[in-house]
Specification:
Layout (H helix, E strand, L loop, with lengths): L1 E4 L2 E4 L8 H6 L14 H17 L31 H18 L3 E9 L10 E11 L2 E12 L4 E4 L3 E2 L2
Antiparallel strand pairs: 1-2, 3-4, 4-5, 5-6, 5-7
Length: 167
């Protein structure tokens, strides 16, 4: 089956449903009509935007001894202003936090690994740089994807740069 999308024909097997957040927040039609399907590039861009929202949301600090389940109270990242970009220990802690947060809350990504990229510190000593590697499930296969991220602890902000398909 072919579907017209922006004056081009795209096979239906190459289109994806928008995220539940997008469907809930941008639903203008309550008639039950299914929202438009996305191309792969639009789908990846939406994941990128959702990652930015997730990683820039500050979760409520909880005093618990066991790992918390995914819920509204644990959604997001902790305050990043406490981490020093010059400290290898702090960089590793933030790397683990990124990996755990993405694994817990971004269900469209699997096999998430986050790697520290230290070369940016030579030009921007107030920043931390990471490479987020994951796979997007595309029935019945998985496609590898990479997102580069830059964290500026002093401003408590996370940027997710343009995603790239991995070979």
């Amino acid at each position: 089956m072919m579907i017209k999308n922006n004056k081009t024909q795209i096979p239906a097997s190459q289109l994806w449903m928008p995220s539940i957040i997008t469907r809930l927040t941008q639903a203008e039609d309550v008639s039950g009509i299914m929202p438009a399907l996305y191309s792969f590039e639009t789908y990846v861009t939406e994941i990128q935007q959702d990652l930015i929202k997730l990683l820039n949301t500050k979760k409520i600090p909880l005093d618990i001894t066991q790992p918390a389940q995914a819920c509204i109270l644990t959604y997001g990242m902790p305050d990043l202003t406490l981490f020093n970009p010059d400290s290898a220990k702090d960089i590793e802690t933030v790397r683990k936090l990124l990996e755990e947060t993405i694994e817990q809350f971004e269900q469209r990504l699997t096999n998430v690994t986050v790697l520290s990229k230290k070369q940016i510190q030579k030009t921007a000593p107030t920043m931390m740089s990471f490479c987020i590697n994951a796979q997007i499930k595309i029935n019945p296969q998985y496609m590898p994807i990479r997102f580069d991220s830059v964290i500026e602890p002093a401003n408590d902000t996370v940027q997710i740069l343009n995603p790239m398909k991995r070979a």
